[in-house]
Amino acid sequence: MTQAKHTERGTRPAAGHAVVRAVLWAITLVALPILVITPMTLHQQLTLSVAIFIAALVTNRFPGRVPTLALIFLSVVVSSRYLYWRVTETMYMDNLLDLVLAGCLLMAEVYAFVVLLLGYVQTAWPLERKPQPLPADRSLWPTVDLLIPTYNEPLSVVRPTVLAAMSIDWPRDKLNIFVLDDGRREEFRTFCAQAGVAHLTREDNRHAKAGNINAALKKTSGEFVAIFDCDHTPTRSFLQVTMGWFGRDPKLAMVQTPHHFYSADPFERNLGTFHTVPNEGELFYGLIQDGNDLWNATFFCGSCAVLRRTACEEIGGIAVETVTEDAHTALKMHRAGYNTAYLALPQAAGLATESLSGHVGQRIRWARGMIQIFRTDNPLLGPGLSWAQRLCYLNAMLHFLYGLPRLIYLTAPLAYLVFGASVIHASAAMIFAYALPHIFHANLTNSRIQGRFRYLFWNEVYEAVLAWHIFRPTLVALINPKLGAFNVTAKGGLIQKQYFDTQIARASLLLLLFNFIGVGFGLWRLTWVDEERIATVWLNLAWTLYNLVILGACVAAANESRQVRSAHRVDLRMPAVLHVPGAAPVACHTFDFSTGGLGLDLPDELQRAIGTPLEVSLFQGEVEHRFPATVRFSGGKRMGLRFEALTLSQAHALVQCTISRPDIWSQRWGQHPRVAAHQVLAHIARISAVGFQDMFAHYGRAIARKLRPSRAAAGVSRGGDST
């Protein structure tokens, strides 16, 4: 792609940076092979490693993207040198067991190295595309069909999305809203008629969501199609933010915006990290998609996006060959020569999965679908893609193969501790000299690149929870991509009581047992191993203890917390006026809201009995809307209200005042502070300790329940003997 086209698509590197890039490429092509393959003694390797790491620490103090590229270069140098050393110097094994176990570990390390390199390609220079203005003449704005596919979700989940869609600032005669009801429910038809939006159904549910959208495409005619999952509520600025780029690029087929969630996902809720630790998806939507956009490789994510109808029709509609229909659709668009774009500006928000089992099921579908694409429409093969697009798609697919490598990392030190197998044929000193620089540089560089969207070590917690569950379906998809069905991710459910999900935690518990056994063997080996090998024992023990910390956090994630709110609260401070019968109106501010009520910060103490009827005013610009409510709690200068029997017009006005505000989600986006590695690890260790407590408490109660009937029966038996 030419520099002119780069500039047209967004904020591309300036021309002066092209010279810098050329120099860096020249240095890389000459220096990297020399640095990688030059053999060194232990002293020389340590000296080189220390020198490079000091250079990296100094470089990291400078802001800007060129220092980031320098850090990436240094990381690639030490990681490539480590892998070359591993392949050429550490694979001399004396027996078959050592060779097999060493080969498995090396395979995992090669996988991690490839993913590291591809990740650098994706994230080194995020495009940071900005919205483009629309024509001043609104009559020139195109027509848009807004589709909301739904299957089995309750109306309480879909209703706010429809009302938010109705609030979008776009000419009424150019925006048509369609609820695609694959559940064919009468209450949905009635609600759509009342709201004045179209209700579409079809005779079957063939191809699930993709088929539902494709059926709607045949019944609609707008120039563009906006798609929202039924729990994703758009802001009223959504179309004005996204549509400007279509006017600048006639080959632009799709504009994607982030998936933002206003409810805690299972990790955040069970581990208590909501709003304090970036969630699992923020790295993808905060950084990777923005990095993909540099290479014209933005993925369609199934929701919060706008597609050009002609481009969609040219590729045959939404892809139905795999269960990851969204990414496959983008791949087909790119093969057809179309462009895609990403705006890292949240313009919608939705519900995260409620339970860890639902979250795992969703990730299994994503993993199986991406491997299906890899097998049936491999991005490395076939026409239409640039080399950069192929690499971006390849990394997305390779990512979901982390199951087996993660399991290997969680068990690798046991090979030596339990069996005495030498999986790395080298001294502990040499392992330190080569492996630690590789680990330190990768963490330092990724911390700089990813710091606001992913904290160090957290990816290991996420992957360790999912590893076993992901490994099986991805292996099946590699063997036979046609196996497996589409599963709908449940939204809007409740968790009435806390419980420990033993089904999800089973693999983590088994791995915990193995690692505890490894610690026992390691302590035993310390008592008799010869002095030359004692460092190796300590190295593997340290690795095992780290695995125990990660697995303890996995166990904590499986302890499901209660989720009893049918309407999730969102932090938001905005003006309000409280109208209490018999008293003057009170100007105040909200501190949170939901579709069912809101919380108020009052200027003075105001006590009212629970259930007291009153009204509260919220504002949409200069327009005031009043809502009937009752007091839910009252204490000091705070009061909680519950809305009472809102009419459809009042519910619509509430949405306009709250979740459809243009700034409501963007002000929270990417605001996590950078946290030092030792602080992150200490946080995970504390969570891990809680996980062990939860595990022992759960199994302690289970054992007590089993013993109680036995004791009771024994008591009856003794009583019978004494009579």
UniProtKB/TrEMBL annotation:
<feature type="transmembrane region" description="Helical">
    <location>
        <begin position="538"/>
        <end position="559"/>
    </location>
</feature>
<keyword id="KW-1133">Transmembrane helix</keyword>
<keyword id="KW-0997">Cell inner membrane</keyword>
<dbReference type="InterPro" id="IPR001173">
    <property type="entry name" value="Glyco_trans_2-like"/>
</dbReference>
<protein>
    <recommendedName>
        <fullName>Cellulose synthase catalytic subunit [UDP-forming]</fullName>
        <ecNumber>2.4.1.12</ecNumber>
    </recommendedName>
</protein>
<feature type="transmembrane region" description="Helical">
    <location>
        <begin position="414"/>
        <end position="436"/>
    </location>
</feature>
<feature type="transmembrane region" description="Helical">
    <location>
        <begin position="18"/>
        <end position="36"/>
    </location>
</feature>
<keyword id="KW-1003">Cell membrane</keyword>
<keyword id="KW-0328">Glycosyltransferase</keyword>
<feature type="transmembrane region" description="Helical">
    <location>
        <begin position="66"/>
        <end position="84"/>
    </location>
</feature>
<dbReference type="Pfam" id="PF00535">
    <property type="entry name" value="Glycos_transf_2"/>
</dbReference>
<comment type="pathway">
    <text>Glycan metabolism; bacterial cellulose biosynthesis.</text>
</comment>
<dbReference type="GO" id="GO:0016760">
    <property type="term" value="F:cellulose synthase (UDP-forming) activity"/>
</dbReference>
<feature type="domain" description="PilZ">
    <location>
        <begin position="563"/>
        <end position="658"/>
    </location>
</feature>
<keyword id="KW-0135">Cellulose biosynthesis</keyword>
<keyword id="KW-0812">Transmembrane</keyword>
<keyword id="KW-0808">Transferase</keyword>
<feature type="transmembrane region" description="Helical">
    <location>
        <begin position="96"/>
        <end position="121"/>
    </location>
</feature>
<feature type="domain" description="Glycosyltransferase 2-like">
    <location>
        <begin position="147"/>
        <end position="316"/>
    </location>
</feature>
<dbReference type="Pfam" id="PF07238">
    <property type="entry name" value="PilZ"/>
</dbReference>
<dbReference type="InterPro" id="IPR009875">
    <property type="entry name" value="PilZ_domain"/>
</dbReference>
<keyword id="KW-0973">c-di-GMP</keyword>
<dbReference type="InterPro" id="IPR003919">
    <property type="entry name" value="Cell_synth_A"/>
</dbReference>
<keyword id="KW-0472">Membrane</keyword>
<feature type="transmembrane region" description="Helical">
    <location>
        <begin position="507"/>
        <end position="526"/>
    </location>
</feature>
<dbReference type="InterPro" id="IPR029044">
    <property type="entry name" value="Nucleotide-diphossugar_trans"/>
</dbReference>
<dbReference type="InterPro" id="IPR050321">
    <property type="entry name" value="Glycosyltr_2/OpgH_subfam"/>
</dbReference>
<comment type="function">
    <text>Catalytic subunit of cellulose synthase. It polymerizes uridine 5'-diphosphate glucose to cellulose.</text>
</comment>
